[in-house]
């Protein structure tokens, strides 16, 4: 893993932790951005972590580009020596896989898909060498995911599954992007899953829908009253398959202001995780019980 | 007082200097595409430089004032009328109660800024009144203004009458427009011949040009250095593992049509970028119309910082001229 530094004009420092996606690259990006935040460097105006890279926005009238570069490079060598441990939270997200709304949408855009005769889930199961849709849903919801980036549009989480590379679910994006995606669709493109925070265009495969709002500019949803965006990079997500009756019930709870997502604070140790991913994930998920 | 919207124009939104600090959550800074025009318009009517104004693109709105106000229109060249009588741009104008502000066809540039003494007084959302329509955030009800809307205006502070920004202090794109670019980010992904053609070719603004991004076409397709695509990047040579996108960064999906991300940028994605338009030239992009011939001009960091200082000095001159 070689870190590459580049300037995005006179206001951004762009840092690529690795060209390829991996949990190591993500964790390095997260640790470095945390350390940069803690360092409180004067002139840094925004710190944006991404999947295997990150970006620092700075005010060149306050700090010279070469000085911010030196500061961040210094933090890279310091971060390499610190313990790879973060305080974060694990969240259970209910998902109604194979729901009627994403199904209606995927049928409407079938001519833009690699396999017009199958559904997105049937295609995803096949290209990942899994027996059927149920096996795919089991793999998708069986292991937790790291929120490796929040963005594209308001509050949309990109998630990378916490399993070894050989077990990563990979599905190409649509051949041509759709002009419509239902709000709160669970999507997947490349090795990343996402939750569409708002209705709109999209190119990711559609697997299901969650009743849990994750972006609320009105800030009327109980758990979004403090801030309108739910996710933060570093959050850990566990999907829980639900059926239509549970979905309908959850929607009612959201509407009446009673819906409360299951959220637990956890400490994540990257070394322990690497030693035994399955066991470590089981322990993490235990916090949700 | 309020402003009644008789006709909204093509897409007219409330904008100020934006909401920095939320790009890591996918909420862009937003705010006026042409910051200098917004600052100048506010100074002309005695507002704080960052007060909320209306930004209209290509077609101006028709607005009725319910009370007397001092207003100014800056940015693009678009004939300004009060009750049908033409008025000068970049100049403080006195509007009587009941008068109607309207516009003729755009002559040059792309966006006008309309400042009103007291500022457009919509509620703050994450510290800014700027409209971010995708997130239904800020502005007037999170959207572009529509006929029948009544826009609230804040209390005006006293200011000098008859102020004007002289022509030499107004900044406009040339013809062809020249945008200075600092190569970087994934610049190494294209062959030297493409690095040369990117700066040598003349491009023109495509119809797909909005507050999120400006697309260009007409130059040669870029050729990539061959490689095995990294894990997670996607199969097209223009794909990368989804990363952050700087404001002003130039992505070239498929190597074909460059897209410059602007104030309402998506915060990240999976296309490689060849470099970034320098901060001093971002305002100019907001004044480009479709089909405008455009050249990308290579610049280094020292040049970018010098251009930034020049732009600051120009703003200071405007401040002094209007003080």
Summarize the structure.
Chain A has helices at residues 23-39, 65-81, 100-108, 120-127, 133-142, 244-255, 270-275, 277-286, and strands at 4-8, 12-16, 44-49, 53-58, 85-97, 145-150, 157-161, 185-189, 192-195, 205-209, 236-241, 262-269. Chain A is of the alpha+beta class and 289 residues long. Chain A has 2 domains: 4-82, Gyrase A, domain 2, CATH 3.30.1360.40; 88-286, Cyclophilin-like (Cyclophilin).
Record the SSE blueprint.
The complex is a heterodimer of chains A (289) and B (323).
Chain A: E1 4-8, E2 12-16, H1 23-39, E3 44-49, E4 53-58, H2 65-81, E5 85-97, H3 100-108, H4 120-127, H5 133-142, E6 145-150, E7 157-161, E8 185-189, E9 192-195, E10 205-209, E11 236-241, H6 244-255, E12 262-269, H7 270-275, H8 277-286
Parallel strand pairs in A: 5-11
Antiparallel strand pairs in A: 1-2, 2-4, 3-4, 5-10, 5-12, 6-7, 6-11, 7-9, 8-9, 8-10
Chain B: E1 2-7, E2 12-15, H1 35-44, E3 53-57, E4 62-65, E5 69-77, E6 80-82, E7 85-87, E8 93-95, E9 100-103, E10 108-116, E11 150-152, E12 177-183, H2 192-200, E13 203-209, E14 213-217, E15 239-244, E16 249-251, E17 259-261, E18 268-271, E19 273-277, H3 282-285, E20 293-298, H4 301-322
Parallel strand pairs in B: 12-20
Antiparallel strand pairs in B: 1-4, 1-11, 2-3, 3-10, 4-9, 5-8, 5-10, 6-7, 6-9, 12-19, 13-14, 13-20, 14-17, 15-18, 16-17, 16-19
Helix pairs in contact in B: 1-4
């Amino acid at each position: 893993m070689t870190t590459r530094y580049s300037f995005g004009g006179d206001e951004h420092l762009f840092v690529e932790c690795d060209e390829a996606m991996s949990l190591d690259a993500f964790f390095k990006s997260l640790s470095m951005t945390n350390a940069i935040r803690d360092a409180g460097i004067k002139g840094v105006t925004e710190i944006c972590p991404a999947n295997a890279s990150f970006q620092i926005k700075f005010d060149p009238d306050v700090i010279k580009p070469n000085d911010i570069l030196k500061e961040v490079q210094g933090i890279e060598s310091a971060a390499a020596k610190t313990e790879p441990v973060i305080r974060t939270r694990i969240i259970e997200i209910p998902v109604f896989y194979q729901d009627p709304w994403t199904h209606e949408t995927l049928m409407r855009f079938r001519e833009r898909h690699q396999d017009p005769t199958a559904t997105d889930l049937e295609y995803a199961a096949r290209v990942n060498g899994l027996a059927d849709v149920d096996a795919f849903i089991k793999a998708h919801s069986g292991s937790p995911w790291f929120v490796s980036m929040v963005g594209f549009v308001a509050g949309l989480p990109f998630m990378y599954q916490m399993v070894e590379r050989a077990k990563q679910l990979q599905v190409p994006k649509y051949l041509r992007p759709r002009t419509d995606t239902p709000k709160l669709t669970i999507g997947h493109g490349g090795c990343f899953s996402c939750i569409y925070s708002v209705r709109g265009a999209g190119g990711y495969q559609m697997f299901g829908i969650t009743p849990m709002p994750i972006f609320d500019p009105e800030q009327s949803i109980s758990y979004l009253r403090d801030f309108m965006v739910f996710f933060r990079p570093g959050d850990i997500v566990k999907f829980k398959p639900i059926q239509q009756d549970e979905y309908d019930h959850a929607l009612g709870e959201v509407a009446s202001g009673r819906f409360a997502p299951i959220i637990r604070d956890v400490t994540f140790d990257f070394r322990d995780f690497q030693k035994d991913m399955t066991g470590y994930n089981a322990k993490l998920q235990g916090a949700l019980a | 007082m309020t402003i009644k919207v008789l006709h909204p124009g093509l897409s007219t939104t409330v904008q100020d200097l934006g909401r920095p600090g939320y790009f890591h959550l996918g909420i862009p800074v937003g705010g006026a595409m042409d910051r200098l025009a917004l600052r100048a318009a506010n100074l002309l009517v005695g507002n704080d430089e960052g007060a909320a104004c209306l930004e209209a693109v290509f077609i101006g709105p028709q607005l009725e004032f319910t009370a007397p106000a001092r207003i100014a229109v800056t940015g693009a060249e678009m004939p300004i009328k009060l009750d049908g009588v033409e008025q000068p741009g970049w100049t403080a104008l006195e509007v009587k109660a009941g008068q109607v502000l309207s516009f003729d066809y755009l002559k040059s540039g792309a966006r006008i800024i309309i400042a009103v003494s007291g500022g457009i007084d919509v509620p703050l959302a994450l510290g800014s009144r700027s409209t971010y329509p995708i997130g239904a955030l800020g502005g007037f009800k999170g959207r572009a203004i529509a006929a029948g809307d009544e826009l609230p205006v804040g209390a005006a502070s006293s200011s000098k009458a008859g102020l004007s920004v002289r022509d030499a202090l107004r900044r406009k794109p040339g013809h062809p427009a020249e945008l200075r670019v600092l190569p970087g980010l994934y610049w190494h992904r294209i062959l030297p011949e493409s690095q040369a053609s990117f700066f040598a070719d003349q491009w023109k603004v495509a119809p797909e040009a909005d507050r999120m991004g400006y697309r260009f076409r007409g130059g040669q397709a870029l050729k990539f250095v061959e490689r095995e695509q990294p894990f997670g990047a996607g199969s097209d040579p223009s794909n990368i593992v989804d990363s952050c996108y700087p404001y002003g960064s130039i992505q070239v999906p498929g190597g074909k049509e460059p897209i410059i991300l602007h104030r309402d940028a998506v915060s990240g994605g999976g296309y490689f970028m060849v470099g970034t338009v320098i901060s001093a030239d971002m305002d100019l992009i907001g004044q480009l119309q479709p089909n405008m011939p455009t050249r990308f001009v290579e610049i280094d960091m020292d040049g970018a910082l010098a251009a930034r200082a020049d732009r600051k000095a120009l703003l200071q001159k405007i401040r002094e001229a209007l003080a």
